[in-house]
Amino acid sequence: MGVTTVGGGAPFASPPTGRRPRKGIGWPARLEIALMTGPTLIVFLTFVIFPVAMAAYYGFFNWQGYGPPTEFVGLSNYVLIFQDGTFVDALQHNAAIVVLSLVIQGPAAVLLALLLNRKMRGQTLIRVLVFVPYVISEVVVGTAWSLMLQGNGAFNAFLQKVGLGWLESDWLADPKRAIWTLMGILTWKYIGFAVILFLAGLQGIPDELTEAAAIDGASYWQIQRRITLPLLGPTLRIWAFLSMIGALQLFDLVYIIWGQYVSSTAGTSTMATYMLTNGRNAGEYGYGNAVAVVLFFISLVAALIYQRFVLRRDTAGAITGGKN
Fold first, then answer.
1. Are the CB atoms for 127 and 117 separated by under 8 Å?
2. For residue 26, what is the DSSP state?
3. In sequence order, what are the residues at sequence separation of 6 or more whose Cβ sits closer than 8 angstroms to the Cβ of residue 317?
4. Which of 185, 157, 187 is nearest to 169 (CA)?
5. 284 contacts 278 by C-beta, under 8 angstroms
6. Cα dihedral across residues 297, 303, 307, 310: positive or negative
7. Percent of the chain with pLDDT over 90
8. Considering the entire predicted model, what is its pTM?
9. What angle do CA 78, 81, 83 make, to 5 degrees?
10. What span, in angstroms and rounded, lies between the C-alpha atoms of 314 and 306?
């Protein structure tokens, strides 16, 4: 802010330019930043960036997993991936799982969170029961569901006992039902995480807003639609991001329940199961590494697009919120 005079009169302050003077960062602060971020950066480079770079390198070779790679094939592995109809099918299955997870789990988790956010008897017990499937190991979940859903398993026997035998089906092998079977298992397994996340978001909504709306005559559902859901938006967007990335990288439950061969014929294969089947299990480690790189970049691009068009408002608000 400068000082000027008019006609030799009293000085007056010129209007501020809007720029704040830059303060340099001293060496003690730089050293502190290096000590705090250095170990994390080293771990990230060692266990994330370096493996991805090595996988991309091996993807340029026809390599069987032992000895140094010598048969250079260039981009042949990467081109072959998208020419393989099995991989394209797996990619479409991943896309369907992403969409169905958001459409099925999201609304169901919001309704459960709104229900469990109200005072009721056994509220704590119900919350625990909803969250329990999420903490159970995927191996246990996959094994249990694969046994129950077999043709002669407990689920079909239960349908027969209650007089709904006409609903019996081969829930795991029928391509028309297998994807819905997978979505049912995924919803049962992961909806607890979404509910707990939404409950945490609901705790940050001031009660004064809903009480004022109720006094003004708003109904319960009007309050949820006009106040609760908009304020819960950041939590919903974060959950959707985590659900999307998890669906793109889905492997364990599909591999445990359907195996490496049945998953493709049943219509539940994913890019991760394709990578294992056509990479390590086929002895084509170079090709498997190329598939891993493609999976990584598909997830990265999806994350960047979501960050750019969906999460930008939240991150921008967090960064600029402290400025005057």
1. no
2. P
3. none
4. 157
5. yes
6. positive
7. 52
8. 0.83
9. 115
10. 12
